[in-house]
Specification:
single chain, MetI-like fold, 0% strand, mainly alpha
Length: 258
């Protein structure tokens, strides 16, 4: 019974993705009817300048945003963990959770108004790559904090103090003692931030400018005319890339555990 229930869950989750992958090799443009096997959509995908430009912006922003958010989120999680007052720690965590629970459209509109006031009105900078990047960093940080905190809580309470008693400076204790212990949480937070950045549409829609579009906005624009099989091909390649990345991370985790 448990296996049947598990199989049903996986079927509901992954059947649409498998269908998408199969129809990325469909000869016809319509996704609901099979008209023969072909690789032509993959060739046209790499020749489509609009999609390639959107892919470039998507990966660039996701990579930078995940790195910056991981650095800030890790330091923030360490600071929260070291905070001695429980009521203050709970208050900070509650504030950290607001962007996660807050609807994306509210966050998107709020950032749009903030950028209009700060960048447009004061500095004369129009919305574009910079505002989109800052927005992605902003909504990724809370997820990194929540990924790193459990690993910090699993550490023995006196680990840092013991390292400092042996002559290590606070920065050395953090780099050589704390970081190796919380590394799995940092990697998980970075992967979540990277995935969220690639996936985001609503916040990106409100904070980007002319000439800068990520894949979600570009696909939304193309969907008005009908989804092209090239999008199926792109989605297939991205899905396989994510699966490959997860396999590599899991293998490295098993090696480190040994």
């Amino acid at each position: 019974m448990q296996r049947s229930y598990l199989a049903l869950i996986y079927a509901v989750l992954y059947a649409p993705i498998l269908i998408l992958m199969v129809f990325s090799f469909n000869e016809g443009k319509r996704g609901g009817k099979w008209q023969g096997f072909t690789f032509k959509w993959y060739g046209e995908l790499f020749n489509d300048s609009q999609i390639m430009k959107a892919l470039y912006y998507t990966l660039t922003i996701a990579l930078i945003a995940s790195i910056v958010a991981t650095l800030i989120g890790t330091l923030a999680a360490y600071g929260i963990h070291r905070y001695k007052k429980k009521w203050a720690k709970k208050s900070i965590l509650a504030v950290n959770n607001i962007p996660i629970l807050n609807p994306d459209i509210v966050t998107g509109v709020a950032l749009m108004v903030w950028f209009a006031f700060l960048f447009n009105a004061i500095f004369g900078i129009r919305n574009g790559f910079l505002t989109l990047l800052i927005a992605h960093i902003t909504f990724c940080i809370p997820y990194v904090v929540l990924s790193v905190l459990p690993k910090l809580k699993q550490m023995p309470k006196d680990t840092v103090e013991a390292a400092m008693d042996l002559g290590a400076k606070p920065s050395q204790a953090f780099m050589k003692v704390v970081l190796p212990e919380i590394k799995p949480g940092i990697v998980t937070g970075a992967l979540i931030a990277f995935t969220l950045s690639i996936d985001d549409f609503v916040i990106s829609f409100f904070t980007t400018g002319s000439g800068v579009q990520n894949l979600s906005i570009s696909i939304f624009s193309m969907a008005r005319k009908g989804i092209s099989p090239k999008i199926n091909a792109l989605s297939t390649l991205m899905f396989l890339a994510v699966i490959g990345l997860l396999i590599v991370v899991n293998k490295r985790s098993k090696i480190e555990d040994l």
